Amino acid sequence: MNAKPEIEFPEGPAPEVLVIEDIVVGDGAEATPGATVDVHYLGVEYESGDEFDSSWGRGQSINFPLNRLIAGWQEGIPGMKVGGRRKLVVPPHQAYGPAGGGHHLSGKTLIFVIDLLGVS
CA 65, CA 119: separation in Å to the nearest integer? Predict the structure, then answer.
C-alpha cells in the first residue's frame, strides 16, 4: 500500500481537542464505531516529534477492534474509508491520560497518521 508517511513538525501549542484531518479520502468500506480495523500507522509525540511507534517499522499492519483502542482512535477512525489516510492529533485525555498515569505516554499529545487497509 502506501509508503510510511512523514509527519511535519507542528507549530504552536498542542490542541486540547481531537483534531481529525483526512490526507487521502478512501473509496472502500467505511469504518464504523464497532468495527475491527486493519491499519498501518505511525505515532509521534507532538512536543518532541519523536516517533514512539510505527507498524511500518515492524513491517506489518495491525488488526484491532476499535473498542480496544485509545479514545482518540475510537472517535477518530469511524467514518474513514478503506484506502484512506487520516491524521489524528490526540490530546492526553483521549490517549493515555494525564501525566503520571503509569504509561510512558501519559500526559502527552500524540499525532498519528493512519492508513485504513480493511474493515470487518
Answer: 10
Residue 19: φ, ψ to 5°: -110, 125
Element (H, E) at 117: strand 110-119
Is residue 114 in some structural domain?
yes
* Residue 35 is assigned to a structural domain of this protein: yes
**In this structure, what CATH number is given to the domain that contains residue 92?**
3.10.50.40
Q: What is the pLDDT of residues 57-95, one digit of tens each?
A: 999 999 999 999 999 999 999 999 999 999 999 999 999
pLDDT tier at 2 (50, 70, 90 boundaries)?
confident
Its domain, for residue 105, covers: 19-119
Inter-residue contact 18 to 94 (CB < 8 Å): yes
Domains held by the chain: number: 1
The predicted-structure confidence for 90-107, as pLDDT tens digits, reads as follows: 999 999 999 998 999 999
| Assigned C-alpha cell, 69 | 483502542
DSSP lists the bridge partners of residue 90 as 110
Asked if residue 89 belongs to a domain, the reply is yes
